[in-house]
Amino acid sequence: MKHLVVLISGEGSNLQALIDACQQGKIAARIAAVISHRADAYGLTRAATAGIETKTLNPVGFASREDYDRALAALIDRYPLSVIVLAGFMRILTSAFVERYAGRMLNVHPSLLPRYPGLHTHRQALANGDAEHGTSVHFVTDELDGGPVILQARVPIFAQDDEQILAQRVKTQEHAIYPLVINWLLTGRLSLRDNVAWLDGAPLPAAGYAAD
Ligand code: GRF
């Protein structure tokens, strides 16, 4: 049996999609633990409702980012682990942490990377008058939101959209593509080699699967 550890900070709608996908057999794994850096993350309630072990690791009291990430790794390593899934985890990770789990850690970012790394992606897409927006699942590397993209999903932007509506449209796509990619990694179809994502024995293009 393979195991996921999911890191969250908030709402946890992606976490819910993963819980459902595990229950439905769409992800060949169970979630060993859900870890949040905030005690008030609603995702913790979702996990507890599903009978999944939860932990909160509050950054207050840690002298440095390195210290926090060391404690986070020690906590993660208490669980059986196949893949670490970042699902709205709003902390920048240190190089040592990223290195420790290289090739075994995925993130979902709400933009069509390399467009809009960082925060407020929906706001930026609207302000720039973009006709489309989307989401990217990528391997986590040292570069913030800069690891190799595995799969993207696009959504249209309509004239009357606001940030909230657009965020929800993007999340609906995230809930569909994230379980898929996680399962590719778990089943050995996907890997990270020399900073390139490989799927089924071939390197993926810069914008991920089916981007060409
Ligand atoms: C998602 O939009 C994801 O792309 C980003 O943070 C958000 C998390 O949402 N990394 P939720 O907590 O899964 O609802």
UniProtKB/TrEMBL annotation:
Annotated ranges, domain Formyl transferase N-terminal: 3-182
Transferase found in the keyword field: yes
CDD domains: FMT_core_GART
Keywords: Purine biosynthesis, Transferase
Active site (catalytic residues): 109
Protein function: Catalyzes the transfer of a formyl group from 10-formyltetrahydrofolate to 5-phospho-ribosyl-glycinamide (GAR), producing 5-phospho-ribosyl-N-formylglycinamide (FGAR) and tetrahydrofolate.
This protein's name: Phosphoribosylglycinamide formyltransferase
Organism whose genome encodes this protein: Candidatus Sodalis endolongispinus
Lineage of producing organism: Bacteria, Pseudomonadati, Pseudomonadota, Gammaproteobacteria, Enterobacterales
